[in-house]
Amino acid sequence: MHHIELLGADNKDFRIKFISILKYTSIYDTKTLSSFYDDLLNSKKVIIEFRELDNKFLNDIASKLTDLYIRIGGSSFHEDDEFYIEE
């Protein structure tokens, strides 16, 4: 199973977009994802685990998360640092 480490979020208005990106691809329900977004707004690290998806699809998800200004630490599926946003 693949995962991605999220380090923080800066915009409270992106909660619904965050949930819509992850609700069918991650192993978590909407309530849990909403709670994770609260943690990200408080700069707490969150690990998102994904269902079995190919790396290209997972990289697209990571790109969408960075478009929401979510800081990404590391992942189990991406070796290039192109989408990482450092703290």
Molecular structure report:
- Helix 1 crosses helix 2.
- The protein has helices at residues 15-22, 30-41, 55-67; strands spanning 3-9, 46-49, 70-75.
- The radius of gyration is 12 Å and the shape is globular.
- The protein has one domain (3-75).
- The protein is built from three helices and three strands.
- A three-stranded antiparallel sheet has the order 2-1-3.
- The longest helix has 13 residues, at 55-67.
- With 87 residues, the protein is of the alpha+beta class.
- The model has no long low-confidence stretch (mean pLDDT 89).
- Helix content is 38%, strand content 20%.
Number of domains: 1
Q: How much of the residues is beta strand, in percent?
A: 15-25%
- Give the number of helices: 3
In round numbers, the mean pLDDT is: 89
Q: How is the main sheet built?
A: 3 strands, antiparallel
Provide keyphrases for this structure.
87 residues, alpha+beta, three-stranded antiparallel β-sheet, 3 strands, 20% strand, globular
Short summary:
38% of the residues lie in helices and 20% in strands. With 87 residues, it is an alpha+beta fold. The protein is globular, with a radius of gyration of 12 Å.
